[in-house]
Amino acid sequence: MKIALLGLGTVGRGVVEVINENKESIEKRAGQAIDIKYILDIREFADDPINKLITKNFDEIANDDEIAIVVEAMGGIEPAYTYAKSSLLKGKSYITSNKELVALHGAELLEIARNNHVNFLFEASVGGGIPIIRPLNQSLTADEIYEITGILNGTTNFILTKMREDGRAFEDVLKEAQELGYAEKNPEADVEGYDACRKIAILSSLALGEHVNFQDIPTEGITQITKEDMIYAEEMGYVIKLLATCQKQDASIFARVSPMLISKVHPLAMVNDVFNGILVKGNVIGDVMFYGRGAGKLPTASAVVADIVDAAKHTGTNIISFWNRDKVELKDKKQVKTRYFVRLQKDMDSIQNSVKEIFGTVEEVKSLNNEYAFITELDTEVQFAEKMNRLPELKVMNKIRIEK
Ligand code: HSE
């Protein structure tokens, strides 16, 4: 089977390496040899034998009937979207690690694949090397899934882990994550939570069978988390994690990405460094945890190559995915109930009384010098915001949600 690879960046290189390294076992599992015939890249790789496969012209790939599978590891919406559509319409399966593309156009591309009896596969788009798309599509189909909560971004998990363990500053650890090849080209996508947001949109769309628009998911990143927050968390028996969640609450669906304080005994609390963890709750199976390397060259390439094998095994057959274009209406974020941990600068003695008057019962926390810290009762986000506004002129050092 001849395939074409679009993009020879970190993941693309990994795909070439995995195909060469595990050639024999991959061939056995796919039932045929997998040969890379083209690599699309704008660069030259002069001293590299791979250079003979390089093309700069996508049409050469699209018009070559020998190419059965197109593998994209470029990222970004364009030209990936155009290439995906064109490949599928020409009867080629399309495999991608590109979460922006899948979150935005997943439902449409799956439909085109279905109509053309080929496959649009994207295991590597969420959780790096962790199998999570295939389990949602094929293994957990007996269940009504009522919650997916995950640590879906390796870079931010690496940063939070190092900040906590080594007392290091945010910027310093971010640089290391970029050097290790975990971070996106633009680290904003990682640290502001946009990457995790697209990933939870993909997982929830697959679990619900309808389209969860990533733009509707309230998203906060980790840039406001400080060393002091880590000290408080430790003292209270919590760790801080960037959690992406989608939950059925009564008759509605609620989704969010934000830093959360979670108990040290929460199943996701032990997920550290670049690892991702995904907790799926189903009404029949109960809780299921997926754990593994969420970013990096080879783990991501492992998921891409597994998709290549699957596509090769299903030549001429569409593997049905449950994700149509109807849009899911998400619950208004203001009505979601949360408990907050709040740190205030203590520049007035009566602060305790003011907090009590406005918030009612709060749980006081042993505070750092010149601060007053507490945990609120469960409240809607809108009520919490109103109460915070009623506080007298006080400097809010930080406020972080607490997982129930
Ligand atoms: N930047 C992403 C992460 C890469 O850190 O998780 C994998 O999607």
Task: Describe the structure in your own words.
The mean pLDDT is 95. β5, α5 and β6 form a beta-alpha-beta unit. α4 packs parallel to α5, α5 packs parallel to α10 and α7 packs across α8. This protein has three domains: 144 residues, Rossmann fold, CATH 3.40.50.720; 158 residues, 2-Layer Sandwich (Dihydrodipicolinate Reductase, domain 2); 69 residues, Alpha-Beta Plaits, CATH 3.30.70. The chain is of the alpha/beta class. The protein has 14 helices and 16 strands. The N and C termini lie far apart (50 Å). L-homoserine (HSE) binds next to α7. The site of L-homoserine has 11 residues, from α7.
Question: What secondary-structure arrangement, pairings included, does this model have?
Answer:
Blueprint: E1 2-6, H1 10-21, H2 23-30, E2 35-40, E3 54-55, H3 58-62, E4 67-72, H4 80-89, E5 93-96, H5 99-115, E6 120-121, H6 133-139, E7 145-151, H7 154-166, H8 170-179, H9 188-191, H10 194-208, H11 227-236, E8 238-249, E9 252-263, E10 275-282, E11 286-293, H12 297-313, E12 337-345, H13 351-359, E13 363-365, E14 371-375, E15 379-380, H14 381-390, E16 396-402
Parallel strand pairs: 1-2, 1-4, 2-3, 4-5, 5-6, 9-16
Antiparallel strand pairs: 7-8, 7-10, 8-9, 10-11, 12-14, 12-15, 12-16, 13-14
This protein binds L-homoserine (HSE).
